[in-house]
Amino acid sequence: MQCTLRTPEQAMHAAHAEHTAPQTALGEISSRISDLDKWRKIFSFCGREGSQTAPQGPAGCGHGAVGTRGAAEPRVPPAEAQQAGRPIPMDMATALRTLLLGNASRTFSQDWAGAYFRFREPRSDLAYALEAEKGGTRAIVMAVQANIIKYLLFMKNTEHTHLERLCKISQKEQGEALAAALADSLWAAGDGRRATVCLLTAATHCSPPAGYKADSFTERIHLFEFPEKAAAQEFIFDHIGCFRDEGSHGLILFLYSLLFSRTLERVQEELCAATPHLLECSSGNVSCTQALLLLVLAGRTQPGQRSEVGFLRWGGEEAEHRLSPVGSMLKTPKFPIWLCSINGTHSVLFGTNQLLLSDWKMEHVFHLYFYNGQHKQTRTAHLTIGAKCPQAPALPRSPTHLQNCASLPDTHSHHWEEGRCEAASSPGRRAPSLEMAIRTKWPGAAVGWNGTQPFF
């Protein structure tokens, strides 16, 4: 997909032509004029505001983005935007591909090059949810999904409560949530001081040197830098089609933006000798390293402090002994949202009560929700967890309390839990891997599936 840029004269000619068109075109002209102030603000944030007037409207770059008209049309940078941004130099393109793939002669596989952020149906049970394909891209999509959930549950102002915040959203609100999630990762990667957004333009900016294999899009990258998070988020939303349209290379554009926000030099310094690059290539498959996932979730490749979104992993006893442990800071984030790596497949586990991780009493019996990104999942799975904080005294258990909690699992000895534990330990039986991942955070927790078929 190409982002076609127009000169100011072409844009003004187009606006004049529409002015003489039928009355139905007046709304289009008004919308294009309204874009002037947006671009002036962007130029100002980038420190490149000049005396020229911004064009009346940007040219097309695919379909499906949400603009000021509410119509399905993407936003792409017009000619003046190139003054605010800068084309990628060849040495940066080489370093970028080397940092991700280990060698500039390697290119992205078809599934990576074609990956973008695609939502489920708006105003549905899974309106908040991104679809994730099989393969390595799924991990990045689910990491962004965790940030989308964080925004919708704990950041966005709305009259809706709890899960209604996730299922009531429109297509426009989906775009807003994606823009907020992407901007949040970029801003964290820039240490809260800067964010860089990468978009594609039609022209190739550099000639590949020997040893560099062109991929038709890295060489067309244009970099837009922002010293304010709000400006970066607005810019992404105005060009959301460049991340969520088919053929946009949206997922790779986000990864490039993330690395430039952190700076290539700093990411390289943070990587250890055992993980010299961020993607692992094996037998034709490309998968994410934990360092790259942490960069999406926390803005750094190594856990240095408590992050806003957490990480849980389960791959069986043997795998857990072989892999480096997931630390307590990743298991106990600021918000009750976790990216889960379960047998190498990524998904999201989350709660709606922000006090869950700050008040041990909330961990006695609580609810979590699970989304695995697969198209066959049609509703968010609802889990009830019984977990007892080891250092906390047991809560009083009056007859009334027992009656009210009779249907909820608890680490205290309920008869159904004893049967489930016996079944899980019986020959030929095994506990669902999701339950094992949950127990890496809450040891010994009982998990109730509330009618959902357990995910193994």
Automatic annotation (TrEMBL):
Q: Name one GO biological process term.
A: protein K48-linked deubiquitination
The regions listed as transmembrane in this protein's record are: none
- InterPro entries from the xrefs? MINDY-3/4_CD, MINY3/4
Q: Tell me where in this chain the Deubiquitinating enzyme MINDY-3/4 conserved domain is found.
A: 97-451
Q: GO MF annotations for this entry?
A: cysteine-type deubiquitinase activity; K48-linked deubiquitinase activity
Annotated region Disordered: the residues are 50-73
State the similarity comment: Belongs to the MINDY deubiquitinase family. FAM188 subfamily.
Q: In its UniProt entry, what is this protein called?
A: MINDY family member 4B
Which species is this record about?
Gallus gallus (Chicken)
